[in-house]
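[step 3/7] fold_predict: job queued, chain A
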Amino acid sequence: MPMTYHLVQLGCQMNISDGERLRTVLENMGYRATDHEEDADLLGVVACSVRQKAIDKVYSRIHKWNRWKHERSLLTFLTGCVLPTDREKLLDRFDLVFAITELPQLPELIRECGVVTAASVRAAQHPNGKLQPAAGAVGSMSENTEYWKITPQHSSRFEAYVPIQNGCDKFCSFCAVPYTRGREVSRSSAEILAEVQQLVQHGYRVITLLGQNVNSYGRDCAGSEISFAELLRHIGEIGERSDREFRVYFTSPHPRDMQTDVLETIARYRCLGKQIHLPLQSGDDKVLMAMNRKHSMSRYREVVANIRRILPEATLFTDIIVGFPGETAQQFERSVEAMQEFAYNMAYIAMYSARPGARSSRTKDNVSNAEKKRRLHRLTGELQRISAAYNRSLIGSTVRVFVEGTDRKPGYLSGKTEGRLVTRFAGTDERLIGSFVTVRITDCAPLSLEGVPAEPVRHGSFPAAATAAGERIL
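[step 4/7] structure written:
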């Protein structure tokens, strides 16, 4: 009977992407995935130190798993985005703690714990003790990003994440990423383009380029790499040469680095999704300065004006933090005003929480939890009001929807427009999942659309995606 593993993935899309490469390594070692953690021989967490709530889940899981060790033999590991302080506290609770960039060494690390698999034997026989990339892996990488060589095991048959960089150089005072992932390292553009081309050829319909600050892509390579706009242009050309319908998105850009050449490239190519996620974090210049965001409201306003001019059809998403240390009621009101001014289609609003290691953790958290909740609810209400007005303007129009699955409402399927607006439409044929369908909008809610098919639909190339064993907790 093969050994089994269960993986818990916490946090952002980058962690999900890392988990897809982790699954490849484990399955090349002979492990097989199981949805039942109580049956697994190997239990792992792809962690996220960005939010305390995610770290609390790590403690809860490992406490339970270590109790199970009294009853049976099992091995535990921790990887992902882990702050040095969290890593130190968790070292003696897990059997293995390793950085995701050390993923190629995992077979050898497991062998050192006394678990022998075919892959760990191969790794031990290799001069550098590393797992060699599986057949079909894309390209070659610099040594510190060798894990990108590993072919990911995508959890969907029609949606894929493609990492283009790792780390961040911005050092926002509230953010843990530079301390968990290090400084910015760009992936080879040749590898990125080869992976995108391969995904398109295999029928993937939605591809998301990932990075902590995608629009600074290539700047760490001293002129040896192309710019982010050029990378998008090459991807756009793949779309022009292909007879397949697909969309490419990216997350996340930084307002300081967002240039018009990126927007002009998106406008030029049909496969580049007309949706921009532009984190604001606060509508007040003094708070932005305390956050070390390195952009002012005037700079942000300039970028949004360029988006509206060059991509008038694009939707606009953002991130906002409420209750940052020292944020006054008046400063919060400027975030409300920014929500009104920029008319976001979606905003991911978070209450501030300190992360050890991030610079803001040394500042007294002087906004009460009750006040943070009040500000969160106020800003959410404003978002819903603004989004609802935009959605009402779409009633009677037709939109192209990528079908992702069945909706909670019986008799409906659900997907997203090109602008990534959630849309459900009347229909029960699950063969449409993974397809593009033209939908006529008949109704809306503050953050979603509803409609009916506007034309006879063709079935997608793929059945509904089978979720890889394990958990993804966002």
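[step 5/7] annotate
The longest strand covers residues 436-445.
The chain is about 30% helix and 20% strand.
exit 0
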